Amino acid sequence: MPVPQSLPCPRFQPPPRRTRIDAGFKSVFIGIETPSKESLRETRKLQNLKSDLVECLHHVHQRGLMVMAGFILGFDNEGPDIFDRMIGFVEESGVSMAMVGQLVAVPKTPLYDRLKRDGRLRAIQPGDAFGPTNVVTVLPPRQMAIGYRRVIQALYTPRAYFGRVRKNLELLQPRGPERRLRVKDYARVLRSMWIQGVRSNYRGVYWRYLLWAVLHHPRKLRFAIQESIYGHHFTVYSTQTVVPRLGEIVAELSLEAEVPSHQMAASM
Q: b or e along 99-128 (b: 16 or more beta carbons within 10 Å of the residue's beta carbon)?
């Protein structure tokens, strides 16, 4: 069961009397938000500036917790390089499950009130997770959509995903109690092998990853298989749902950008 967490690095904090690991937790969700220090200052998430984020994430893995992390694109201090920086940070940190979204202003929040005063709210109701945001971002909407799509494409190719999981397994030191495996757990493994190892278009990547885990980290095989199952969801969902949806958004925004020039030509 994941539990929300925030940095700074756990090793700089006094351990609780009974740690989450002792209680049986195996994963944790951490709100990183952005690799940009300027944007972290902008959002006053100063706790993420107190230590090296990559080092801290590696330390969490070493403590026996798999990390899921949240990231946001669209802060004012971000330039066109933010997309490459985001990809690079996720790959370096080894966060296999990176939830990347766009900045959205939720009503009755300080961000919403500030943007409303500044006239930077768009007449869009938040709800479409991958559609245009209701925030007038510094980067143009089309550039945001293209960059966002590129981030998702880069992070969730099977090769990229399983590469990050390999890094996780190298660092991971399993601790705490283990739940006894049941018959349905073995059934899930067999189903995973059939779907990922036989029917999927990335079966070669899957089998190389699984063989590597068996040879190099047999004691972590449970984690390796669990992460591979998660990976099927993320890679398929990203490829079949997220990237096509963002492609539609890019096409819509490109059409909007062409309308003024067509109108100008018609009036001449």
A: ebebbbbeeeeeebeebeeeeebeeeeeee
